[in-house]
Amino acid sequence: MADPKDVDPLATWRDLLSQWEQGMNTIANRAMASDEYSSSMNGAMSATLKLQETMRQFMAVQLANANLPSRSEVQAIAERVGGLEARLDRITTLLERIAAAPPGSADAPAAPPHGTEPARARPPRTKKPPGTEPAA
After folding, report:
1. What pTM, to 2 d.p., does this model score?
2. CA gap 100, 26 in Å, rounded
3. 105 alpha carbon, distance to own chain's centre
């Protein structure tokens, strides 16, 4: 005789559940293999897609009436801002590299192109405008 400690009180329940699962799987597999199931699922998916498109159009009209941006407009703005941030990061990196480079190195600013003169320092202004000079 089996020891009462070794008897699993839920073994019968697990067996019943396993048999029920196998039976349901058999019924479901048989139903899904039919053409009627395929056509009904196709119809349900078409109806769902049509409902989604209708809701999208309705929301676009309502947002336009409320003078609010639609999701696609917000996404387009986010992409543009992301592109601007990336460009600013590249510019910042280049400026930091130029600022940190010693003169004459490869990263230092290049000399102006041939034929253009660099900006010269202007001499100090010594001449005073008329009327401010002392009278002799």
Report:
1. 0.41
2. 73
3. 39
